[in-house]
Amino acid sequence: MAEIEPNWEWYRSFLQVLETGSLSAAARALGLTQPTIGRHIDSLETALGLKLFTRSYDGFAATDAAQELRPYAAGLAATAAALRRAASGQAAGVRGVVRVTASEVIGVEVLPPILAALRAQHPGLSLELMLSNRADDLLHREADIAVRMFRPAQDALMARRVGGVELGLHAHEQYLAHHGTPASLQELAQHTLIGFDRENAFIRRVQQEYQAFARADLAFRADSDLAQLAAIRAGYGIGFCQVRLAARDRRLVRVLPQQFALNLDTWIAMHEDLRGSARCAATFAALAEGLAAYIEGR
Amino acid sequence: MAEIEPNWEWYRSFLQVLETGSLSAAARALGLTQPTIGRHIDSLETALGLKLFTRSYDGFAATDAAQELRPYAAGLAATAAALRRAASGQAAGVRGVVRVTASEVIGVEVLPPILAALRAQHPGLSLELMLSNRADDLLHREADIAVRMFRPAQDALMARRVGGVELGLHAHEQYLAHHGTPASLQELAQHTLIGFDRENAFIRRVQQEYQAFARADLAFRADSDLAQLAAIRAGYGIGFCQVRLAARDRRLVRVLPQQFALNLDTWIAMHEDLRGSARCAATFAALAEGLAAYIEGR
DNA sequence: TAGCCGCTATAAGAATCCGAATACCCATGG
DNA sequence: CCATGGGTATTCGGATTCTTATAGCGGCTA
């Protein structure tokens, strides 16, 4: 038992093998060769005193032990990436890489013009957009700035509320032309409803406030908010959509505006450590301004 | 500009140089040699395109850039250490290393017998104790299990409330013999009071509830809760102390028990990822049981 | 002021690690 | 049934990296 501290580089190889499923693929991804990766895994196994993979002739199979270690290795990779981003923006002025995470709808429909304008203003700046609804992106350093529809709970974050995004029921005018416009909650039950497949905080709130949207009543379900939006636009049926977003397309009509309305608080959050970073501060400010403009309908 | 991805091993050298202040010391700490560390730093500087240290003949001086990158490097080290702990406990049964964090008083006065009993039960288990009041230990993976006097706010944590620790004013009987026992809040003002030097959540609560303990009135201040406890035991004056703790020493007398009482919720928290770990589950259970016994005065 | 200690920088030999080539295994498809 | 493609294991020469050693610099102390 050598009791050797593993070389951190071995962790990188380990993670890559986990993610690609084979030594060869990991080697390609890392710009190394298969024997090298194989040696790294061997070394790591002896250093940890664990069997990480069961060898076979079509790729490695990760053992349970390897799977348990995976989140740690992924954490290393995320932190290393964050370090690189931080380093890229060290020089004076607004330059370097900023990684922004947001929900799919916001990321696709709202952020691009905001980020484009920001980028035009700062040619040295690069922006990366990561679309997900996971709340822990910032803590795991997977992103620098997050746009979220709920108040970030973590202590180490700087969070600013930029306003409330109004959600309402919408449908395409063609759909309404064919099926009529519901005038009441009862009539809504006769219509094709678009809703969520996956349970999440948002849909629980909807179900709580509006029994009509109980999961069983939905004629279309999709994990992705974007898919729902596309379904509404395609005239599939009636679904929830941000009011400001729908207002951009004259053919989208709001349904039952009095009866159905939800307000989602919108927050921008950033890790405290990045307070001094010019590129992050500039991006934060641009997002705050741009989202406020979006919310107010400018 | 080579645009090379830094070797993760360089980060380890970088952090060690930051922490030790010189190439040579870092080399000793890592079991390498000074020219090696020097080359790592050089490589990292060119890879990141940053000047990390200003060379001088008595150690390096870290630049601002290096200081900004420090938390990331520390995060890497913490995650790597957590990975090793996780790996050490992979084998079946309760074995490996568990790292517990707690406040100083709990860690010194309450936990040792609990941990000793646990260890006696599981000879393959090693325990590490880290004493601090920082809330983010678990998220940065600096510890596996935390004993805290407030409800952990993070989502990714499993937290269990084990009860309320009662705090009260105490003094040594010798002190009271010399100065008398205060019978009212007014009399307390004539006495020597032991309190906190640093502002924190606890003292703010005390000040809010008991004006007598405004900071200016304190005749003895110490950052460390242990130092306060020692002062009480030494007969220096009257201060706050856990009631159960004071009850162990017959010469410590509770003062104004009706007027002054604070109840601190006590929580045990663990990262969700560790749920499946036998060694962490066993430690968690032992802490829950032991702390409950302490709180109930068993 | 001389001497010592700890530090960094540099050069050259030793040890290590990597990569190319190869052998072999398995699944797939004509 | 054989050819093919993607995978792992192994070997060996060569490039890279580490260590050893040496020199130079600055601060401290006698």
TrEMBL record, chains A, B:
Keywords, sorted A to Z: DNA-binding, Transcription, Transcription regulation
Protein family per UniProt: Belongs to the LysR transcriptional regulatory family.
Transmembrane segment boundaries: none
Lineage: Bacteria, Pseudomonadati, Pseudomonadota, Gammaproteobacteria, Lysobacterales
Organism: Tahibacter harae
Coiled coil: none
Record's protein name: LysR family transcriptional regulator
Recorded superkingdom: Bacteria
Pfam families membership: HTH_1, LysR_substrate
Cited InterPro entries: LysR-type_TF_proteobact-type, LysR_HTH_N, LysR_subst-bd, WH-like_DNA-bd_sf, WH_DNA-bd_sf
Location of the HTH lysR-type domain: 6-63
